[in-house]
Amino acid sequence: MSDGTQTGAQVGLIMGSDSDWPTMEAAAEALAEFGIRFEVGVVSAHRTPQRMLDYARDAAGRGIKVIIAGAGGAAHLPGMVASATPLPVIGVPVPLKYLDGMDSLLSIVQMPAGVPVATVSIGGARNAGLLAARILGASDPALQQRMSAFQAGLEQMVLDKDEALRR
Ligand code: RP5
Prior knowledge:
It is an enzyme of class 5 (isomerase). The N and C termini lie far apart (53 Å). The chain is built from six helices and five strands. The relative contact order is 0.16. Strands 2-1-3-4-5 form a five-stranded parallel beta sheet, sandwiched between helices. The model has no long low-confidence stretch (mean pLDDT 96). It has one domain: Rossmann fold (3-Layer(aba) Sandwich), CATH 3.40.50.1970. The radius of gyration is 17 Å and the shape is globular. α1 runs parallel beside α5, α2 packs across α3 and α5 packs across α6. By secondary structure, the chain is an alpha/beta fold. Helices cover 46% and strands 15% of the residues. The site of 5-O-phosphono-beta-D-ribofuranose has 12 residues, from β3. 5-O-phosphono-beta-D-ribofuranose binds next to β3.
């Protein structure tokens, strides 16, 4: 898989640089927790524009259902990918050394009408993975059931902490 594509993957997890991986890894972990097959690759809007377009245009035909795209700084990757695929794209603003990730967030979130990107919080890669699981769960009852169980677990965790606090 020299180009990062993976047969059978439902989610394409891409990022503008390998330096984004420490942030984006949390999305991979969430997908793995839900048993979702995914592929990982570096696809840069600015350094490999043709590769980005090829990836976006081919993804649906290869069976990818959701794309998670993370980038930092002038983070054009999620929006550009969304412009070249009919698939849902989840954008992850990766925080860099300067501007606390606000540059990444604003580059991703403020899309023109007609080209949506579902933007998560700065560094919110785990939520990107969970959102991809919810999207896939809409047409996969077993996966949706696992999401409901996960949510029940979150609720129980809060209740347990509340009880511990009052002990
Ligand atoms: C962006 O530029 C990447 O997504 C990354 O967040 C940032 C810096 O990339 P490197 O210079 O670390 O490769 O396109």
